[in-house]
Each structure stands twice: as C-alpha cells, then as structure tokens.
Amino acid sequence: MAYRIEGRLLEVCTCKAICPCWIGDDPDGGTCDGTLAWHIDKGEVGGTDVSGLTFGMLAHIPGNVLKGNWRALAFVDEHASKEQEEALLAVFTGKLGGPVADLAQLVGEVVGVERVGIEFDVKEGSGRLRIGNTVAADLECARGPDGRATVMSDTIFSTIPGSPAYIGRAPLYRAQSEPLGINVNLSGYNSVQGAFCFQA
Q1: What is the full DSSP assignment across 108-148?
Q2: What InterPro entries does the database record attribute to this sequence (predicted)?
C-alpha cells in the first residue's frame, strides 16, 4: 500500500531554542518532552484520501534523540473516518515504510492512541496548535535581519526529513499526560515549523 502525503509541521519541546536534538546532541536537561503535529493538506494512503486531517504525537525522549526508546501518545484527528484513521496509523507507525518509518522506529512504546479535536493553524510564520485537552502551544518563527525566517537544513535528525525547518520559540507550551509522566508549562522554548512531502 503506497502513500503520498504533503502538508505542514508544527513542533514544540522542552529544549531551549535551538533544539540540540536536530544536530544529534543530547537534549537540554538530558531528556525532552515534545509535541509534533503533521497537518496533511493533500494526501492519499493506499487509495484512501486523508487530505485535511492532522496526526499528532506527544513524546517523552529519555536521552539522545537518535538512540530511540521514545514513549509516545498518538493523536488522530477526530474528523477522520475509521478507514482514514487506519491509514494514518499505518503511515505514522512506520508500517508502510518510507521517510516516516525512519522516524517511527525511534518510538519504543506507544502508550495510547486518542481521537481528539486538533486545531492546527499557521499564519505569517506564527503557529497555533491545540490537541484536545492535552496540548496547547503557540509558535513564533525566528527571523534574520531582513525579516526572512531562520532556517535549518541538512540536519542529522528531522521530523520533516528532506525539507527545511523554520526554527523559533514558543510563547506558550503546555502539555500534560499522566501515562507519559509529562506536565509542562513553559514560555520561550524551542519551536519548529515546516512543510513536508512524504511518499513511499
């Protein structure tokens, strides 16, 4: 079953900006609690249209990001049909291979999958992410002296492999999950935005 999905990413975590995980260094403080959300503007998985849906993840990363053993809680857009949900989980758990599988293999344990309302919005370099009652984040892109977004590319780790990532800070990042032992309420820490196109 082949897939092709394209869209946008919002990411926040407990590392200071710029997150050292992207260059393969250990996270600030030794561990990282991060939220990732991929909004699919256009996509198909094995003939199932998944356009307009969002898939998210809250993860506890116990050490160096490349060593894996992440513990994660997955979120499926409440607007997804059962068929669409199964298609998204097949992609993001790595069952269908491709670039997403390289990321999925870092997750050692999925503590649950929840269907929730997800608010995903990006306007002029600022992002807003709400995932049920679990995650609330606002993101602002860092900018250079000419006003252009500050960009990372060709990093050893990426949640949007093959695409540039726009780095910034999150004025708001709240996340709470008892199964993951996460209780975060921060301002001014790492955020990342970007676009992706994954296919296999």
Answers
A1: EEEEEEEEE-EEEEEETTEEEEEETTTEEEEEEE-B-TTSP
A2: DUF1326 (IPR009758)
pLDDT single digits (tens) 6-64: 999 999 999 999 999 999 999 999 999 999 999 999 999 999 999 999 999 999 999 99
Phi, psi of 62 (to 5 degrees): -80, -10
Exposure of 97 by Cβ count < 10 A (0-12 exposed, 13-18 middle, 19+ buried)? middle
Q: For the chain, give the number of residues.
A: 200
Q: State if pTM tops 0.70.
A: yes
Backbone angles phi, psi at 186, to 5 degrees: -130, 160
Instruction: Bin 65: left if φ > 0, else alpha if -120 < ψ < 50, else beta.
Output: alpha
Cis peptide before 160 (omega within 30 of 0): no
Distance (Å, whole) CA 75 – CA 55: 6
